[in-house]
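[Solved] Which block belongs to which protein?

Original post:
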Amino acid sequence: MGKQETMTTTTTAPPKLSASTLLSDQANDRAMQKSRGAMQQALSRFRRQKLAMVGLVIVVALMIFGFGAPLLAPTGYADANLMDANQFPSSAHWMGTDTIGHDFLSRIMYGTRTSLLVGFAAVAVSMLVGIPLGLLAGLRGGATDFVIMRIIEIMTAFPGLLFAIFLMTVLGAGVGNIIIVIGLTSWLTLCRLMRAQLFSLREQEFIIAARSLGATETAIAVRHLLPNALAPIIIAITLAIPSAIFAEAGLSYLGIGINEPTPSLGKMVADSAPYVRVYWHLGVFPTVAIGLIMLGFSFVGDGLRDALDPRQM
């Protein structure tokens, strides 16, 4: 009987770490509530910024304009009629036609889709490379941080545009290749920013408290460091999208970006150069489209930067 009582007592005894676990859960709940409140305040500040809201409207309109091209465009991007070549804007062709009879409105819509696709995908590639390396450098430090920072310094020594031109020459033109090239040449900023955020956060009191409660480094990174480092990362990602789009337009302008017949705004601007003095619409409309994309994302990025400013939290 004595042994049975001892066994029963042993199996029903509460875990020794239950108090620490409870404290950790309560601390996490308070942190999540505070984070939700801060995000609601940031959203409210963002809505009060007129330029940010204008930028958001521009971005949403361009996404509908571009990604809705298969449904909204008057013709396909490769459909051409030589009898209609070099027409100025009219009721039949709202943005005119190009030198081989493409409906220019359709080409602009599909070109906008291409630019947005490259921008989003290239930034996704840079995130997949830069954020994990920044996490690794910030969490491990020491030799790992040293190696990663030396790689960044070596890549920074090469002019970004020239390096991208070199890679495109090696890989060849195409949508997939240009996404890879822009992503692999634009991850440095995200990596440095993530590393700097972790260095500034990992010695904060709430991180030390989590360690004292027995939290692992992985749990600290996922539950504490990453959520608190997201604000500047989100801003950097938003501002990186127009930079990637502009890089694609520049490479396509040079003739090493996207192949025909896939429309590209940068290539349209380049193709319009010999005719723009007469057929002004061939250069004006793609240039305006690129400008609107850059302007919209820049306004949104600036608005997010002001809304997520930690001094206003």
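(Second protein starts here: sequence line, then its structure tokens.)
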Amino acid sequence: MSINAYKQTKLFDENLLLLESDFLKAISQLTRLRILYFLRKGEKCACEIIPEMGEDQSNISRHLNYLKDSGILNSRREGVSVYYRIKDERVFVLLSLVDEIIRTQVKEKAKTVKVI
């Protein structure tokens, strides 16, 4: 069987998997998650985000650009300031689902510890 024929018989789309992987990678880093939650309340200037994160300006700028390039944030320039906002609020639905899974796992582990 050729590689192309094999790919056509797969149960998933490789391109979609790659896009999903890239998206999840973008939100899986701690500083980027903190940025997302900080922006949940609305658009913020980079000058507000950087001090809130407590990290180097260059590091936060890289994370902001990564999130923007990943399609998770939008930005706009106003004079010398750059403002960032969440592009699609459904990212928080995904994070809520992750929170639910984690809570369930913690409860299951707690039950296991009680049994022992």
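Accepted answer:
You had them paired correctly. Confirming on the second one: The radius of gyration is 19 Å.
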